[in-house]
Amino acid sequence: MKRMPRLCIAGGGTGGHVMPALALADAARERWPELEVSFIGAERGLEARLLPERGESVLLLKMHGIKGAGWLQRLRVLLWELPRSVMTIRRSWQESRPDLLVGVGGYASISGVAAALLARIPVVLYEQNAMPGLVNRTLGRFCKRVMLGFAAAGSHIGSGVHTVVTGNIVRQAIMRTQWQAHQPPRLLVLGGSQGARVLNQTVPEACMMLAREGRVFTVTHIAGKDEAAITAAKACYDEAGITADVLPFCDDMPSFYRGGDLMVARSGAMTVSEAAVSGMPCLFVPLPHAADDHQRHNALALAGSGGAMVLEQTQLTGEALAAAIEACLFDPARLAAMSRSTLAAAPVDARDRQLDVLAEFLPLNDSGEVCA
Ligand SMILES: CC(=O)N[C@H]1[C@@H](OP(=O)(O)OP(=O)(O)OC[C@H]2O[C@@H](n3ccc(=O)[nH]c3=O)[C@H](O)[C@@H]2O)O[C@H](CO)[C@@H](O)[C@@H]1O
Q1: Which residues are UDP-N-acetyl-alpha-D-glucosamine-binding (predicted)?
Q2: What confidence score (pLDDT) does residue 2 get?
Q3: Of 32, 166, 270, 290, whose Cβ has the fewest other Cβ atoms within 10 Å?
Q4: Probe target for ligand 1 pocket from 17, 19, 221, with the most ligand atoms within 8 Å of CB
């Protein structure tokens, strides 16, 4: 029987890992229609909902993260959950061994990468952030390539690691969005894929102050799953007479980006890259305790081009945020200039660059088609 070439994408947990994984799968299928793509994820991750909804084939592992966990939980993960997951993965490969595994980060990535290395399957890692995480820095030397979402990450990875700056791969529908000014102006709020408490509290407060000064604008606010925060933010916008949509999660991010003039956001890697490709002017509030301060490094990639401003969470009061929003949202010329600057920093050819890296390790014939 003819055996189709197979790509396995391992990782997930939050949107910052799942969304680029989906974008990569779509791109790979488009370039190589015969390629079989499967995923390895965690039962607790966002992928457990999103991938089956899309009809994707996914092996979901019973795994917990170790970030912020106590030592007992860490030991349990490292000595029990990780080896068990590796065995589960290797068993699943008895029938359908992949030709290449891409580790996109998150809980399930480590198990997938470990299983692939043990089975001598080529591994490519994908680091989305401008400051690479410990796992990629450590495992990188055992893998064929490490694809970098931001060029700045390169200087933080050891010399024994083969890195390729590809940029972050953004879903095609978001690539097609184009920034345009609206009247009245529209403010977007995005606390990453899980919401951000500080934005849920401070942005409605700042908006209330602006409304009291007679400013007219609308708000779309993605707040995460915290029901109490959603209710409180809605009440604040209503009291100020602001037309606002507050939602826990948005499944239509292209419309979200199309519908805004300025975004206040956390600076997760994909938020920053999506803002760049859609030309979205931004006020970023980096997560202060992100590992190695990676959210600040991500934000600086756009701030350096002039398309974004970075606001410190420690100094983020309603007044300070209101002043920053005021300075941008009601100045069409400034917004347009910021939009041009974000676009100039956009990873426009990340898709091709990532596929070119994968092509080095997939079984392809001379015409670049996958071969059985
Ligand atoms: C708290 C935390 O650990 N955050 C990390 C996590 O962020 P997080 O998961 O928030 O990731 P990003 O900001 O990088 O990306 C969020 C992704 O989810 C999508 N999205 C978001 C909200 C929504 O309602 N709908 C939706 O589809 C966005 O379009 C984007 O594709 O992974 C990132 C990438 O490694 C890191 O930079 C962040 O530091």
Answers
A1: 14-16, 129, 171, 193, 295
A2: 61
A3: 290
A4: 19
